[in-house]
Amino acid sequence: MIFLGMALRQAPAQDADALHVGFAELDVTPKLDKKPVYMAGFGKNRVAKAIHDPLIARAMVLKHKEVKLAFVSVDVVGLFLPLVEKARAKLPGFTHVLVSSTHNHEGPDTLGLWGPNMFQSGVDPDYRQRIEDAIVAAVQTADKSARPMTAKIGTARAPELLHDSREPIVKHDELVAIEFLDNDTKTAGVVVQWNCHPETLESKNVEISADFVGATVGFLKEKYNCPVVYLTGTVGGLMTSLRVKVEDDNGNALEDGTFAKTERYGQLVGKLAVKALENAKDIKLMPLIARTRKIFLPLDNRLYVLGWELGVLDRQAFRWNDSIDKAEPVKSKRDAKGKLCLRTEIGYFKLGDLEIAAIPGEIYPELVLSKVVDPAEKEADFPDAPIEPGIYAQLKGPHRMIIGLASDEIGYILPKRQWDEKPPFCYGRKTAPYGEINSLGPDTAPLLCEAFRELVRR
Prior knowledge:
Elements: H1 2-10, E1 20-27, E2 50-51, E3 56-64, E4 67-74, H2 81-89, E5 96-101, H3 125-145, E6 147-148, E7 150-157, E8 163-164, E9 174-182, E10 186-194, E11 207-208, H4 212-224, E12 228-232, E13 239-240, H5 259-278, E14 281-283, E15 288-299, H6 302-310, E16 318-319, E17 328-329, E18 340-351, E19 354-358, E20 362-363, H7 365-368, E21 399-403, E22 412-413, H8 444-457
Parallel strand pairs: 2-11, 4-5, 10-12, 19-21, 20-22
Antiparallel strand pairs: 1-3, 1-6, 3-4, 7-9, 7-14, 8-13, 9-10, 15-18, 16-17, 16-18, 18-19
């Protein structure tokens, strides 16, 4: 007690009103020696043969007075809300814990969609538990290491680092970087948020990797000698590194599906973050305000329903009754009558002068940047659908950021008037575009975007 009292008396008076920040990371690379590891993001039955680079769970804790927030990012394809809620239950005292994934296409299947066949999940329950435990441990360690810090924020654009694989061409090409400083001088942590699918290694790769995210984090850790947290943002649409022109130091083009391109692309994103921080401005990140809302979204995707019926998609289903706020749980597969829905979560965070939108899936840039096509293409399935309220249009502060796949992965979130499942197809396409295949349905965006607008206004 004597030593504690001395420590308290020696602490600076201003620390009580300071922003305390802590970082931690844990390795979550799967073991390959005991059972098959099915890789996520492309086709089924892609079994990992080797480890190229580690997968990491990275955590940042922010504390100001009585409010304590945690932001976690894991190098996997996605995590369902029930797993996140289990982790939260083991972290009492936090105002909110947000867990996102980088949407890595070169790690284990954590959702169930990429098993040996369509009738079997690719999820290893033991690995899923390991992810949950790592989230909890990383947050606890970051919490214990938190200390007073100040911050700077900067942005930089690089449309040349993104390929939009679906018309209309709308890119979210803004990178956001935050630098945390000890005593206003030494860099103690960096957060970088970028909008791109980590899928540079393509579908033929059978080596576990964090894709370009690992290279980006490694580049920045070497540059600043501090922890780095990478957050995925707007990746629907489809924002990808594939078909992006990347060259080596000698000007030779690097091919998709190679580690050479993947590592080079990651370094280019890292350099973009450095550029953002070179022009960074001081930012006040307190007080800390967190608002979240649980909502129900109808499940119109027949393949998802089939996956749930087969047990491939392992999460609670509910009975849709035309309300995003109320739904009764389906007690058994036999009880699944009528339209189903899923329970998910949206979030809004105001950290002083920074506003953050937390979206539980892969949202299209059109919905974030208020660039939904107008007028709609006449071949679209719902050309007269109202335009959804833009996500960034709700954020009125001087700085803004988006976290995608935030505490859940519900698939693609696309404008209803761009839904294009039935022929004839828009833009002269011969077949239906990819996004609709991995979306809950055409009403996801209208319901989610309106719910987010209401959440911010509240």
